[in-house]
């Protein structure tokens, strides 16, 4: 049962103006196959998910803000209509900021277009002759877990494993939540001593999860979006089980670091292959120099060109 008191729940509505050319359908198409069943859903053009994140407090006792939100695009106004239901007043602004980040509303796409628009390889993944906006993570910790689960497996497999973790912690939502929104995704403290046995994870993957969760708890590493990319890479790659692909993918979609580049990603290699032969890593990095400092968006174009 949920510990959320229905009497504490408040509701607010926001309208967020979108940039000219915003492509909501592209965002949903990207997010849909990655939906964690029970935590989020896409229904008739509406994105819905639960949320649970820590409230800034003084002292050692942690308090969480819990709720759910719905996002729907209003084409005639070019706005996102956002409904937020939360048990803490602080959560409304936090959700609004996270939605802006998730849908990449504040990125200056004009400068990125200017940098990347002339590359014929990247053009295969353009949307309406433009570089698409980056579908980012609403919850950076959740995405950190997903990035680890996604090592060397398909999107479908990683999403299934994420669902199993969410369901296994039994952080259930109130009955008043929308249909299909039955669980909160756990946070760092929820998973610190959690057993990942019987979820279909390999022992090495479980070990990596535990290493990362402990490192985050001890502040050895950080999910701060403002940190220096080179420092982030150095600290994360130093962790056992976390390689360059995981760190770059987390930086790319979890933290919104624009020059992150998972150069060993299979989709990247497929997109850059010639005559079905993958390029050498040195050649990939050399080709990607022309995309700096927006290699994350170049990666998205490469994926999109493959139909990802």
TrEMBL record:
GO BP term, pick one: DNA alkylation repair
One GO molecular-function entry: DNA-3-methyladenine glycosylase activity
Keywords, ordered alphabetically: DNA damage, DNA repair
Pfam families for the chain: AlkA_N (PF06029)
Catalytic activity: Hydrolysis of alkylated DNA, releasing 3-methyladenine, 3-methylguanine, 7-methylguanine and 7-methyladenine
Gene Ontology CC: cytoplasm; protein-DNA complex
Organism: Vibrio algivorus
EC nos: 3.2.2.21
Protein name as catalogued: DNA-3-methyladenine glycosylase II
Chain ranges of the DNA-3-methyladenine glycosylase AlkA N-terminal domain: 17-139
HhH-GPD domain ranges (all copies): 149-307
EC main group: hydrolase
Phylogenetic classification of the source organism: Bacteria, Pseudomonadati, Pseudomonadota, Gammaproteobacteria, Vibrionales
């Amino acid at each position: 049962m949920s510990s959320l008191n229905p009497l504490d729940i408040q509701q607010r509505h926001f309208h967020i103006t979108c940039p000219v050319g915003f492509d909501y359908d592209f965002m949903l198409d990207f997010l849909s196959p990655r939906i964690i069943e029970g935590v989020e859903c896409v229904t008739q053009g509406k994105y819905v998910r639960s949320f649970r994140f820590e409230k800034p407090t003084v002292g050692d006792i942690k308090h969480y803000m819990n709720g759910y939100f719905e996002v729907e695009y209003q084409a005639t106004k070019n706005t996102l209509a956002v409904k937020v239901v939360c048990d803490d007043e602080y959560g409304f602004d936090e959700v609004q900021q996270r939605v802006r980040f998730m849908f990449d509303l504040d990125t200056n796409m004009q400068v990125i277009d200017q940098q990347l628009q002339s590359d014929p390889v990247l053009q295969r993944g353009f949307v309406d002759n433009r570089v698409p906006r980056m579908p980012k993570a609403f919850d950076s910790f959740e995405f950190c877990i997903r990035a680890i689960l996604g090592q060397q497996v398909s999107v479908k497999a990683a999403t299934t494993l994420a669902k199993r973790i969410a369901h296994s912690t039994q952080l259930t939502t109130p009955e008043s939540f929308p249909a299909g929104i039955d669980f909160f995704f756990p946070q760092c403290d929820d998973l610190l001593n959690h057993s990942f046995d019987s979820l279909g994870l390999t022992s090495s993957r479980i070990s990596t999860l535990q290493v990362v969760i402990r490192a985050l708890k001890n502040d050895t590493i950080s999910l701060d979006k403002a940190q220096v990319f080179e420092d982030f890479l150095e600290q994360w790659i130093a962790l056992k089980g976390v390689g360059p692909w995981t760190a770059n993918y987390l930086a790319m979609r979890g933290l919104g670091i624009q020059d992150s580049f998972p150069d060993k990603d299979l989709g990247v290699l497929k997109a850059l292959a010639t005559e079905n032969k993958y390029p050498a890593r040195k050649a990939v990095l050399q080709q990607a120099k022309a995309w700096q400092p927006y290699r994350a968006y170049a990666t998205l174009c490469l994926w999109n060109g493959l139909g990802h």
